[in-house]
Structures are given as structure tokens and as C-alpha cells.
Amino acid sequence: MNLQGNVISKYATDGPIFATPTLFDLNNNGRNEIIIGSWDTNLYIIQYSPYEVVRKKAVGPKIYRANQMPNLEKNSIPFVCYPKIHSNYGIMYYCNPSEQIWHPVPLVMHKGSLTGLIQPFRAGSSVKFYAKILNEKNQFTRFPTKDYYSYSIKSTWINRLTHDFSRILRKLRRT
User: Fold this and answer.
1) Is residue 164 part of a domain?
2) pTM
């Protein structure tokens, strides 16, 4: 798009764009390139003068099936996919039981499955989640139909020690 708002070129990616494009001079030529991330796990680098689109394979996220979620390592950012049904619309809800707040996340189509992202949680946390997916009858289907899927963030002895030490320091500061 030029400064007047006219489209000057188009480029199709193999998946939806999930992030705000970034401007940065990657090749130190004095001109910013446009860097775009896509759900197809590629980074697209668009440069002008001359016009060129460079596709770079990025390290893709680990995507877990909702009904086969393992316990995860600290600071994991899980992408969760749901069964393939004829739908392009769904919302996932997740909750850390200590918060009791259900966070909604829009699901996007990725490789034929609706997929969403759950924020990282601290070690020792447990997370519950479910999704409502619009079916071919224009009604929401809940996954799972009852209760929730869940997983835990693994807690190592060093995580527990750090957490306990932080709690003791906070108590000492209050006194």
C-alpha cells in the first residue's frame, strides 16, 4: 500500500497473519523491510527497490491436541487445536483455578484445525480449558462436552525453592 492508501502489490501466505507487521532495516541499506509472521510458520520479509518477498522458515510452535495435552515445562506457550469439524469459528476459554477468571481466545484455522493460544503460567500451576465451536447447524458445540481439558506446568525443586524463598521475603518485608 502506498502513502495514498492504494494497494500496489499483493502476496498470499499459506496461513492467516497473526502478528502486527514490523518495520526494520535488516540489510543495512537505509530502507526498512516489512517483516510479517504467519500461521504457516514462515516469516515473510518484504523489501522494495527492487520489490522482493523473501520467505524464511521460522521455528514453528508446538501444537497440542486438546484431548492429549501433556504436562508442560515452565514458560511453555501452548497452542491447542480442536477436532476437525466443518467450522471456521470458535472460542477457547482457559482458567488458572487460583484466578477463577475465564479468558476467551479466538480460534483460527491452522492446517485444517481450529487452533488457539494459552498464555504461559508459572511452574506448579494447573490450567483448565474448553472451547465452543460453531457447527454446520449454526449452533455451538462444546469441547469437551462435559467438564474441562486440563494440564499442569511442571514444578521442579528449584522452582518450588524459588517460590518459597520469594514468599518468605515478602512476609519479612511486611514485618
Assistant:
1) no
2) 0.61
